[in-house]
Amino acid sequence: MLIAVLVGVVVGCVYTLSPMTVWFVIGAGVLLRTAVRGLPGREQRWIAALIVGAMAIRVAMVATLFLFGSPDRIYVPFNVFFGDEQYMIVRALRLRAIFLGLPMRIDAFSDAYEVYGRTSYLNVLALLQLIVGPAPYGVHLFNILLYVAGGVVLHRIVRYAYGPLPALGSLAFLLFLPSMLLWSTAALKESFNFLIVVSTLAAAIVTVRAPARWRPAAALGVLIGLAVLQTLRDGALAIAVVGLAAGLVGAFVMQTPRRFVAAAILATVAFGVALRSPRVEGAAMEVVRSAAGKHMGHAYTRGHSYELLPKVYYGRRSLRDMTHADAAYFIGRGIASMVMFPAPGQARSRSELLYIPEQLIWYVVVCTAAIGFVAGLRRDTLVTCLLAVYAAVALVAVGVNSGNMGTLVRHRAFALPYLGALSAFGTALLFARYGSSKQGRYAIDR
To answer: What is the pLDDT of residue 229?
Structure first.
């Protein structure tokens, strides 16, 4: 009885100081149990160690915000990792105040419903703090749960498709890559976006492969995921729809060589016909001009910017005068930039110098992901096509819309989890080929 009373007093004190901490511990326990459920004992221990270690590092990072971070005491009484977090948290708190009917200044009310930066993630943060109270530090813990939950979903997808070792490598890559470690802890919408996207991909896989009685529910899950992405950020729905549709078509086409040849011929003919249509050509050029306009907006921001268009367009020529050759040049440079930038020789600041090791890891990931993709087409065509096509669509969209190194690195994280999964499979295959026979067999066994 005494122990129970003491535990109750401690939990009550902690909950009074930080309700989100208590809910985080509960959520972490449920998530950990879900992650290891149904797996062999040794694999359970590895996964539990990865998840506990990743969460511990992230919680320590949140704790350091009390001592470090980027404070702005004039406006807010809390620290953040990035300035965008401050804007997100303050705006969510203003929405919470509106939900509670609290009085506020007119400018604060207007800011809460400002079109710029509007996202459903603000409503999620406002609802969370409506339940637990203001939690400018606790929202970081909430994001950690969202990100790790997405990692658990992706781990199960990869394990089913490629085996236990690639799944373990994919999870480790996702949880401990330095840039992902930072973005997943920040109070930004990246973690929520990742969870929704990977859950939508999982629902699409279940829709194709599950027994007939489960397919309607899985298809409904896909629709719900797409609906949430529409409200989450600009372009997220388009990337998801194109990625899912092209991935499913690619999985169907890649089933047999005959289908692939027929689809290649049909696509070539359709592309040639489309190029001769003035309406299609005009619509395509409008899309390219829109992307070029966004790129120029990023290129003119503070920081390390870069150019993708011919120099004449930066301040001297209108995008309405863009030719087909200029459009092809822009798209080609955009695709190359999202693979190559920021190159080690382009580093200008201390943060860019610190990023060089991860950029080298990125080059390795791209190469091994190509190996994993080719082998994955034979192992699990559906999962491989969905992961690869979604990553490719996201990377192309990022490449042609970016113009700032920091923005490029941040938005490239949209595709990193899925490239990391293919890279883990490719690395496991290399290990299986050049490692010991016993370890090699385990690397590719289901």
So the answer is: 93
Contact 115, 121 (CB under 8 A): no
Confidence of residue 74 (pLDDT cuts 50, 70, 90): very low
Mean pLDDT for the chain overall: 86
**Helices (H), ranges, 100-235:** 106-112, 120-132, 138-162, 164-176, 178-185, 190-209, 215-232
**Could you tell me the residue ranges of all domains in the chain?**
15-189, 277-444
Give the span between the Cα atoms of 191 and 199, in whole angstroms.
12
Alpha carbons 248 and 56: distance in angstroms, whole number: 38
- Residue 305's SS3 state is strand
User: In the structure, what pLDDT confidence band is assigned to residue 435 with cuts at 50, 70 and 90?
Assistant: low
Q: Measured between alpha carbons, how far is residue 406 from residues 211, 247, 288, 347, 444 in Å? A: 45, 29, 22, 11, 37
- How many Cα atoms within 13 Å fall on the side-chain side of residue 79? 11
Who's near 78: CB < 8 A, 6+ residues apart?
65, 71, 89, 136, 137
Specify which of 103-112, 164-173, 284-293, 405-414 reaches the highest per-range mean pLDDT: 164-173
Residue from 386, 380, 382, 444 nearest 419 by CA? 386
* pLDDT score for 380: 92
- Give the span between the Cα atoms of 219 and 224, in whole angstroms: 9
Q: What percent of the chain has pLDDT over 70?
A: 94
Q: Residue 56, CB half-sphere, CA atoms under 13 Å: how many?
A: 6
Q: Is the peptide bond before 357 cis (omega within 30 degrees of 0)?
A: no
Residues paired with residue 358 on neighbouring β-strands, in sequence order: none
- Quote the CA–CA distance of 36 and 38 in Å, as a whole number: 6
Identify whether the C-beta of residue 349 lies closer than 8 Å to the C-beta of residue 304.
yes
Tens digits of per-residue pLDDT, 175-232? 999 989 988 998 889 899 999 999 999 999 999 998 888 899 999 999 999 999 999 8
Q: How far apart are CA 169 and CA 117, in angstroms?
A: 35
Looking at residue 216, its pLDDT comes to 92
- Give the pLDDT score at 72: 52
- Alpha-carbon distance of 54 to 67, in angstroms, equals 21
Q: Which two tokens stand for residue 378?
A: 């034979």
Cα-based distances in Å from 149 to 98, 145, 191, 197, 419: 30, 6, 9, 12, 18
CA atoms within 13 Å, Cβ hemisphere of 37: 9
